[in-house]
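Dear colleagues,

As part of the handover before I leave the project, I'm documenting each prediction I ran so the next person doesn't have to rerun anything. This entry is a single chain, and its sequence is reproduced below.
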Amino acid sequence: MSELSIQERYFADTVCFGCGPKNDKGLRIRSLPAPDGDGVVATWEPQPHHVSAPGILNGGIVGALLDCHSVAAVYGKTGGPGDLAGGWWATAEYAVKLVRPTPSEASLELHARVVELTDTEALTEARLESSGKLRATCTARFRRFVPR
């Protein structure tokens, strides 16, 4: 059996489009701790319905992949959500730079790491690569959201 992803370990019942294990129509990202201990990594396979043009992945899909993979880096760094009554991490903002077109017919490699972390805010850096080339980068800010 393969290692449980951060999403499977901490959010097995969620339906998030990007990373929810229970969303059969979602992207179902599986973020794992990076072998070097710095952040998280994932491999993801595009499907034909993820294209924007023949052979090219849709930019919105690229953004969703990087957003959800980045928050997984935060949960990986903080050891999971803990007591959800104390809050969870929500995306406050993210910026994606599309460096070059991302092929829709090749495996994608995702990398994300936390660069700053406080009790209420986390900053991450992420990148998406395919066929040995950088395709997109992302910086994101997450805030701890406490239900009221």
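The mean pLDDT is 94. Helices lie at 6-10, 59-78.

All the best with the project,
I.
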